[in-house]
Design a protein that fits this description.
Oligomer: single chain
Shape: elongated
Number of strands: 11
Structural class: alpha+beta
Helix content: 25-40%
Distance between the termini: 45 Å
Length: 284
């Protein structure tokens, strides 16, 4: 059995041979990776009888819309490879498996030592796993208003996906999009009674510098103009009254601020199977 001295951690990758012996991959699936997602403390615990893993696959290039836990079902994690290179692995939450711990420990003696995950990438993995069960549930009335459709070319697109398309080109600069519905956060409002909404676009100035600020400020204006064109100005809106859409640095976002808002992710409505226009394996 696994004990406190085990090398296994959340984010560790199985050797291909061990994954094959456990029946998780075939001999032909050399592009697939098995990532451990059990919590570090659960792996050696004698009270836990399983080890949780996710089957992923290598993509040629990371997509910024799938980085940093922005998307609820899919994430791109960049691993460091011996020799200084990197490998991007795409994980989908639907490909999660539970393995009997005794069986796991009898076959997978040690993790793949040639692939390592950085602290920042592991933090993103943790946030993504937590968001699966902890993401906000917005009022049904608010969701339905955000799902209004608009004709784009020859296709009707929901407004939420149009917003996602606007975010996509600059997503690498953004830490998160946060919605504040104020006192109506959990209220089902009647027809013609608007939700008063404020949006915060939080950007990573430490990583991207001034570019993140300028790109995020331009995006905030674009989203604000879009909301006003669809729903009307705040004083006349009957569905969603966007009062503010601001771009702020992640260094300015306080714990107090976070407690008042909910993070909006690209695919936050779980029953909606329509995908926004995001190409896997390429950076917008």
């Amino acid at each position: 059995m696994l004990d406190r001295n085990t090398l296994w951690r959340q984010g560790s990758i199985l050797e291909f041979e061990h994954a094959h012996q456990l029946g998780l991959v075939t001999e032909e699936s050399k592009n697939e990776r098995i990532v451990v997602i059990s919590h570090d403390c659960d792996i050696p615990s004698d009270k836990e009888t399983i080890v949780e893993v996710i089957k992923g696959h290598v993509v040629t290039k990371s997509n910024s819309m799938y980085e940093g836990a922005k998307h609820q079902r899919t994430i791109h994690i960049n691993y460091e490879v011996d020799g200084g290179a990197s490998e991007c692995i795409e994980l989908e939450i639907k490909n999660k498996y539970s393995i009997d711990k005794e069986l796991f420990s009898s076959i997978a003696l040690n993790p793949n030592q040639s692939l390592s995950i950085s602290l920042s990438e592991k933090r993103s993995l943790k946030q993504w796993l937590a968001a699966r069960y902890g993401r906000p549930a917005y009022p049904n009335a608010f969701e339905s208003r955000l799902k209004k459709t608009q004709r784009i070319g020859k296709k009707d697109r929901s407004l939420e996906w149009i917003i996602a398309d606007k975010i996509s080109p600059v997503s690498k600069y953004i830490v998160g999009i946060f919605f504040d519905l104020g006192e109506e956060r959990n209220s089902e409002l009647e027809t013609n009674e608007p939700y008063y909404l404020s949006i915060s676009i939080v950007y990573d100035i430490q990583k991207w510098g001034f570019d993140a600020k300028t790109k995020s400020e331009a995006l905030s204006k674009e989203i604000k103009d879009f909301f006003h064109s669809v729903y009307g100005m705040p004083h006349e809106a009957t569905e969603i009254a966007l009062e503010e859409c601001q771009a702020i640095s992640s260094q300015q976002m306080t714990l107090s601020d976070l407690m008042k808002v909910d993070q909006w992710r690209v695919e936050y409505i779980s029953i909606n199977d329509d995908e926004p226009h995001i190409q896997s394996g390429s950076t917008p």
